[in-house]
Design brief:
Number of helices: 12
Largest sheet: 6 strands, mixed
Low-confidence stretches: 1-5
Order of helices and strands: EHHEHHEEHHEHEHHHHH
Length: 313
C-alpha cells in the first residue's frame, strides 16, 4: 500500500492484527479512500507475533490466552517493517477484543519502544471489530495510547448485529471451528457483508479532514457519523465481566506461564465457569437489568455518552 513520499503529501500509518481476516478486510476497506488518493501516502503494518496465533483456535490455546490478555502482558512480536523514526500525520490502529481486553499483539505494539515512538505526538484513530463488548478494551487502549504520548482523535466500532444470546453460540463456534455459516435458524457469525462494504465512509471523512489539516486540530474528525455506538444494555454486564476475568486471570497466572501444564485444571474450571455463566447467569441477568433500566436510565445515559467519545454519536 505504500507509495513514494512527495512533498506536501499526508502520511498515514495503518497498524492491525487479525486472526480470521475479518478485521483486515474492515481496516483495508476503511482506508481505501486514503489508499486511492494521490495526495496521501498510506503505509500498512501487519503485526506478526513471534509465536503465531492459529485460526480457528484450539480450545486449550483459546483459554490459555485469557490471563495474559486481561493482564495486558504482551506476547513477543517480530520487528516492525516500518522504521520507528518515520513520521506520520495520522495513525489508524485496528484491533480485536480478547476477553474484554485488546488482543495481545496490539497490546505488544502499544507497549513496545517502536510502537510508542511511532505514536508519540501523533493523532490516532482506533478501529474495533468484535462481537459486542468493547468498552473496557478501549479504556485500556486509550490509556496505552496516552502513555505513549499519542492523542486519541476518533474511535470506530463494528459489532455483530446478532442478538446477545445468539452470538454466544455463533461466535464461539466460529472461533473454535472456523465455521461461521447460519446454524439452526441463527444468523452467520461475525459482521454482515453490507456493514463491511460501508466502512469506507469513514475513510472518506478522514480524507476530507486530512485535506483540511483536521488532524492538527484538537477535535474529532468523524463527528456525527455514529462511529462508535454504545449499547447501554451491555454496560453493566461488561463491567461485571471485566472484574470476573481479572480474578480468573490472576488465579490462572499463579499456576505458571502460558502453555504450562499446571494451568490445565484452572483452565478447565474457567471453561466450566464460562459455560455456566452463558447458560444460567446471563439470561436472568439481562432480564433483571431490563427491569431496573428505568431506575438506572440517567446513569446509563451518562456512561453511554462517555464511552462514545471522542467521535460522539
Amino acid at each position: 500500500m505504500a507509495r513514494g513520499s512527495l512533498q506536501g503529501m499526508k502520511r498515514v500509518l495503518l497498524v492491525h492484527f487479525s486472526q480470521s481476516g475479518q478485521l483486515t478486510r474492515i481496516a483495508r476497506k476503511l482506508v481505501a479512500p486514503l489508499a486511492a488518493a494521490a495526495d496521501v501516502q498510506l503505509v500498512e503494518e501487519v503485526l506478526r507475533p513471534r509465536i503465531a496465533y492459529p485460526f480457528p483456535w484450539p480450545v486449550r490455546r483459546f483459554l490459555d490466552a485469557m490471563p495474559e490478555s486481561v493482564l495486558l502482558e504482551p506476547p513477543a512480536l517480530q520487528p516492525l517493517v516500518v522504521h520507528p523514526d518515520e513520521r506520520f500525520d495520522l495513525v489508524v490502529l485496528a484491533y480485536q477484543v480478547w476477553y474484554l481486553a485488546p488482543c495481545g499483539p496490539v497490546t505488544a505494539f502499544l507497549k513496545s519502544a517502536a510502537g510508542r515512538q511511532l505514536l508519540r505526538g501523533r493523532p490516532v484513530v482506533t478501529v474495533i471489530a468484535c462481537r459486542n463488548m468493547w468498552l473496557t478494551a478501549q479504556e485500556s487502549v486509550k490509556r496505552l495510547i496516552r502513555d505513549a504520548g499519542g492523542v486519541l482523535r476518533d474511535n470506530v466500532v463494528f459489532t455483530d448485529r446478532a442478538g446477545v444470546l445468539a452470538s454466544f453460540i455463533t461466535t464461539p463456534r466460529w472461533l473454535l471451528t472456523g465455521k461461521r455459516d447460519a446454524l439452526c435458524g441463527l444468523p452467520c457469525a461475525g459482521l454482515a457483508e453490507a456493514e463491511i462494504a460501508q466502512a469506507d465512509r469513514f475513510g472518506r471523512a478522514l480524507l476530507a479532514a486530512l485535506r483540511a489539516n483536521g488532524e492538527r486540530r484538537d477535535a474529532p474528525m468523524l463527528a456525527r457519523l455514529g462511529a462508535a455506538p454504545v449499547d447501554a444494555r451491555l454496560i453493566l454486564s461488561e463491567r461485571a465481566g471485566k472484574r470476573a476475568f481479572a480474578v480468573w486471570a490472576r488465579l490462572i497466572r499463579l499456576a505458571g506461564p502460558a502453555g504450562s501444564p499446571a494451568r490445565l485444571p484452572f483452565l478447565a474450571l474457567f471453561a466450566a465457569y464460562l459455560v455456566l455463566m452463558i447458560l444460567l447467569v446471563v439470561p436472568p441477568s439481562l432480564a433483571v437489568q431490563r427491569l431496573l433500566r428505568p431506575l438506572l436510565a440517567r446513569r446509563l445515559e451518562a456512561a453511554r455518552a462517555y464511552f462514545e467519545l471522542p467521535s460522539g454519536r
